[in-house]
Amino acid sequence: MEYLLLIVSDPEAPAYIPEEDNIEEWSADLDARGASRVGNRLRPPSDATTVTVREGRTILTDGPFTESKEWIAGFDLIDVADLDEALEIAAAHPMARFGRVEVRPVWPFE
Amino acid sequence: MTGLASSDAATEAARALASVAASERLRVVSTLIRLTGDWDLAEDCVQDALARALTVWPERGIPDNPGAWLSTVARNLAVDAIRKADADRRAARRHAVETSIDSEGEKESTMPTDAFDDDRLRLIFTCCHPALAMESRVALTLRTVLGLSVAETAHVFLVSEASMQKRLVRARAKIRGAGIPYRVPPPHLLPERTAGVLAVLYLLFTEGYSSGSGTDLVRPALAEEAIRLTRLVAALMPGQPEVLALLALELLQHSRAATRIDAAGDLVLLEDQDRTRWDAAAIADGLGMLAQAERALEPLAAPPGPYLLQARIAAEHATAPTAAATDFARIAELYAALGRIAPSPVVDLNRAIAVALSQGPDAGLALLDALELDARLAGYHLLHATRADLLRRRRSIGDALPHYRRALELAPSEAERRFLQRRVNELDPQ
């Protein structure tokens, strides 16, 4: 099953400590599992442009579609056996400690 | 064939079916979920198989192995339903169910050698998966594990049948859509997942033991179902101290069920209960389970968990010959230990009560002063009722009354309101 991990910032989370960032270890684990991976960091929300088409008119808005203190800082697409494995991988991501990780199954499932 | 007249045969069959349904339904439904991956289909087919037994058994007699009969019929119904629904897409699933009828038919009623390879346990753990909201976990457990109807499940939560149906549909959709595996989690996840299962079981129990609101103060049938399920988990996962301790706790608390409410439906406090009417067999059973839990804990070199501490407290109450002879100093210590591993304002409140009963009301009131600062308890009627009671015990009637009145405003159940009103009337006869 495919899951998209949304790596989300959280201003309330403990401060980011570069020495405790084990992202390479995490990637190595993904490779070892064969959980074919596409993923990257995203530029900050200030670099986002939101596109809306209404009644044939395209509206471009500077910034993300929601104004919130949390933002999506990156993503990873993984292919694993089930939710438990996806949750295990998400929990091992450094940003689960410095932010949050939202785990979303990819449609379609069957 | 039994050779009885047809109405006797029908009664006989209905009785046999009721007992088979109680002991086998869970196993049949959980296996069918594993084989089909379809919760609704599995539940419907088991329901239909039970209905079919009611018409077939009086005519042809009760089968030698009624449990195996039920699962075979339920599986055949599932195969038919899958065949009808979609010939191609579900062929693999149908095949799985078909082959299982032959291969699993015989070993049905024997307990698996590996306790974790049990469909019932698989079902319980899946219903209690932490990716589901707590209320969904409890609802699914009631509906699928205990086999309560949607209406009965709705009644537990005091919501409409329609919204309960919606909640159940959503929970099953999440299991399927999010890919929650139908299994007992691997050993490294077991400790944290078992805690969730126990939390659901204890919630079911307390829902039956002291319904938070409404007019039914106790629902013994629900408490008994929770005990039955905890017993099942204890049998399927032997030697787990917290599982045994939860079972002990439930048995010890439930032993008082008959004396907690008087003939008029009014609340009877622990100190006023008729101890000769406590269920001696349940107490003996509970103490036995507690001893097993203590023995299971010993080699682990681990501190006692929250259920073990609570079971020890319940055992102190259950074995005290009178309310006055209860070892409240020990109970206060146990609540203090519980507060350290599972901090909760309610635990602190109970500790304050135990301190008051062992060292006098003033010591309890001093602890309450610290608790009152906790905003989480300000709206909790028992905080105010406790303060009122401790003031009453030291004969500060004028001070006690406003606290009784505040508790009365906040009390969620009819029986508790009647009790508090009685106290107010006693202290303030005008």
Describe this structure in words.
The complex is a heterodimer of chains A (110) and B (430). Chain A has 110 residues and is of the alpha+beta class. Chain A has three helices and six strands. In chain A, strand 3 and strand 4 (57-62) form a beta hairpin. The termini of chain A are close together. Chain B has 430 residues and is mainly α. In chain B, helix 1 (6-36) packs antiparallel against helix 2 (39-60), helix 1 (6-36) crosses helix 3 (66-85) and helix 14 (328-341) runs antiparallel to helix 15 (345-359). Chain B is elongated. Chain B starts with 5 loop residues before the first helix and ends with a helix. Chains A and B meet through helix 2 of A and loops of B.
Oligomer: heterodimer
Q: How far is the first residue's CA from the last residue's CA of chain A?
A: 9 Å
Query: SS-based structural class of chain A?
Result: alpha+beta
Rg calculated over all Cα atoms of chain A: 16 Å
Mean pLDDT of chain B: 87
Supply database-style keywords.
heterodimer, A: 110 residues, two-stranded antiparallel ribbon, 3 helices, 24% helix, globular, B: 430 residues, mainly alpha, 19 helices, 0% strand
Protein topology:
The complex is a heterodimer of chains A (110) and B (430).
Chain A: E1 2-9, H1 23-33, E2 38-41, E3 49-54, E4 57-62, E5 72-79, H2 83-92, H3 94-98, E6 99-105
Antiparallel strand pairs in A: 1-5, 1-6, 2-5, 3-4
Chain B: H1 6-36, H2 39-60, H3 66-85, H4 91-104, H5 119-127, H6 134-145, H7 150-157, H8 161-177, H9 190-209, H10 220-236, H11 241-254, H12 280-297, H13 306-319, H14 328-341, H15 345-359, H16 361-372, H17 381-393, H18 397-410, H19 414-427
